[in-house]
Amino acid sequence: MENNEYIFEVLTETFQSDVVNRSQELPVVLLCWATQIQASVDTKHILERLAAQFQGKFALALMDVAKDPRMAQQLQIQGLPSIRVIVDGGIAGQLEGPQQEDSLRQLIEQFTMSTGERLQESLESVLAARDWDQALMMIEASLNQEPNNPKYLAEQADVLICKGDYTNAQRVLDAMPEDGTEKQRPQNRLELVQEVAGIRPLDELEHQLQIKPEDLEAVYEVALHHAMDFRYEQSLDKLLLILQRDRTFRDDIARTTMIRVMSLMPRDSQIAQNYRREMFSLMH
């Protein structure tokens, strides 16, 4: 068994204190298993690994029914492995039979994700569809519960900017703490919007680059247009081209703008990670 305080064996005598009572504080995943059933052993190993990864967001109670079948009988366990999620003293979810890691992870995430994480997950598809009104409704519903949550406020400001409501976006940003890290993404987006307002139209820039492809100012302005049109990869590609040609262009603005554009992308974006590595290699 993993050396983890959130992983423990449970017996019928300790079920009330270790599972029911503890589930008032955090979700408890109960695994009924036996060493004689290889599929249940495999499930045990997966859950132990997930418990380490989730770092205390849930407890894993292991009940070896071969050693103590009494509680399994009370829970009407029909086969192994059998999984129950106990929340606030009651069974909130369950899975029967062998499971893949993805299925187990999805089950656990239902009960361990924070409100902010749930909002972010729900927002992803809405934002991908650029349904700004629906996104704002979802964010405002969360803000009704936690009106000072900086993550929700940052999402609200960012969506307002995407929608073109810059006045209300600035109002939200002004109300946020100056030193908050959540403020950076919408602030960067608003700065880019203001910068794009003063540059040439995209078709004019593309015509200019056909005539003079070495015009780095035109390349830079095209990158800004791409960023504002959510074409982040194309934007980063143009900015990286400037870095490759002239690192000193406009006091290294290509590098700093790459950082701003990457801040607009999902934190786990593989595209952003790739460009960050390429930028780093050029700098060193």
Produce a short descriptive summary.
The chain is of the alpha/beta class and 284 residues long. It contains 14 helices and five strands.
Description:
This protein is α/β, with parallel strands linked by helices and 284 residues long. It has 3 domains: 7-112, Glutaredoxin (3-Layer(aba) Sandwich); 115-191, Serine Threonine Protein Phosphatase 5, Tetratricopeptide repeat, CATH 1.25.40; 202-283, Serine Threonine Protein Phosphatase 5, Tetratricopeptide repeat, CATH 1.25.40. The chain has 14 helices and 5 strands. The chain has helices spanning 15-21, 38-54, 70-74, 101-112, 115-128, 132-145, 150-163, 166-175, 184-196, 202-211, 216-228, 232-245, 253-263, 270-283; strands spanning 7-9, 28-33, 59-64, 82-87, 90-96. Strands 1-3-2-4-5 form a 5-stranded mixed sheet, with helices on both faces. α2 (38-54) links the parallel β2 (28-33) and β3 (59-64). α12 (232-245) runs parallel beside α14 (270-283). The radius of gyration is 26 Å and the shape is elongated. The mean pLDDT is 93.
Number of domains: 3
> Globular, elongated, flat, extended or rod-shaped: what is the shape?
elongated
- Computed over alpha carbons, the radius of gyration is 26 Å
The helix/strand class is: alpha/beta
Spell out the helices and strands N to C: EHEHEHEEHHHHHHHHHHH
Number of strands: 5
**pLDDT below 50 for ≥5 consecutive residues: which ranges?**
none
Arrangement of strands in the largest sheet: 1-3-2-4-5
Could you name the CATH class of the largest domain? Answer: Alpha Beta
State the oligomer: single chain
CATH superfamily of the largest domain: Glutaredoxin
Proportion of residues in helical segments: 55-70%
CATH fold call of the largest domain: Glutaredoxin
Query: Count of helices?
Result: 14
CATH architecture assignment name of the largest domain: 3-Layer(aba) Sandwich
Distance between the termini: 45 Å
Q: What proportion of the residues form beta strands (DSSP E)? A: 5-15%
Biggest sheet overview: 5 strands, mixed
Mean pLDDT: 93
